Amino acid sequence: MAFEMDERFEWFLEQFGEPNKFESVSEETLAYFSGKLPDRLLEYWKEFGFCSFKDGLFFIVNPLEYQVTMETWIEGRGIMEEDNYHVIARTGFGDLFLWGEKNGNNYTIEPRRGVIFKEEGDAERIANGKADEAIAGFFAVISPEDLDLEDIDTDKPIFEQAVEKFGALAPDEMFTFVPPLFAGGEQTIDAVEKVNLFVQLDILAQLSNREIQDINDLTKLAFGG
User: Fold this and answer.
1) Does the bond joining 179 to the residue before it have cis omega, within 30 degrees of 0?
2) Could you give the strand order of the β-sheet that contains 50-53, starting from the edge strand earlier in sequence?
3) Shortest CA distance to 131 belongs to which of 37, 23, 16, 6?
4) Residue 222 has pLDDT above 60, yes or no
5) Contact, 38 vs 131, CB < 8 A?
6) Is the dihedral of CA 205, 207, 210, 213 positive or negative?
7) How many Å apart are CA 110 and CA 73, to the nearest integer?
8) Residues near 38 by Cβ (< 8 Å), separated by ≥ 6?
9) How far is it, in rounded angstroms, from Cα 61 to Cα 186?
């Protein structure tokens, strides 16, 4: 059956442009995740493969390659007892978007801050047989502006500057801040380095508290209280 584009993913592509496919998805991988992840996501995989957008600002990834890294971050936090989670996407700064088979995207690992951010997720829609709608919604609300970070000295987006300085990201690379933000580093282009993704995420997991935060915690950080 030919792939039929849905409006939400079409909107996503309008924001991010055409993907750079770096790996086709095998039938074995599709079979393994059938029934675990939304059918619509597997259709995106078949059409576009595992791929990157905007020089590596956003990646659609193979969850199997991220399983160990994910477990390192969420181990001992009670998350694995809630649901079966898989990393379905990541950013150029190493943020990992987790998809729960029952809950959808209700956790995002944010390594630069050393935290695991908790959101409401999509449990109700998935329970009602609308997992495809939930995954389409995940892509619809993502924008390049939301994924980039602002330089605290110049107010300019950091990612484009980092690409100009270091080149586009490969599938196993990320941009990081040295020292990391949770250890007193500064969110500036001068503090950015290009590093191996998996090595750096493991290091940051060992150094950080891996605290679970939600929107209320962010509000307290921003405004006090």
Assistant:
1) yes
2) 20-23, 50-53, 58-60, 85-91, 96-100, 104-110, 115-118, 211-213
3) 37
4) no
5) yes
6) negative
7) 10
8) 131, 132, 134, 135
9) 28
Is residue 218 over pLDDT 90? no
Strand ranges for 143-221 from DSSP E: 173-177, 192-196, 211-213
pLDDT for 66 equals 98
Tens of pLDDT, residue by residue over 88-123, are 999 999 999 999 999 999 999 999 999 999 999 999
Question: What does the mean pLDDT of the chain come to?
Answer: 95
- Which residue has tokens 């770096």? 22
Q: Whole-angstrom Cα distance, residue 92 to residue 175?
A: 6
SS3 string of 38-99?
Answer: CHHHHHHHHHHCEEEEHHHCEEECCHHHHHHHHHHHHCCCCCCCCCCEEEEEEECCCCEEEE
pLDDT digits (tens, 9 = 90+) for 125-170: 999 999 999 999 999 999 999 999 999 999 999 999 999 999 999 9
Encoded tokens for 40? 């619509």
Q: Domain segments of the chain: what residues?
A: 7-148+198-223
Report the length, in residues, of the chain: 225
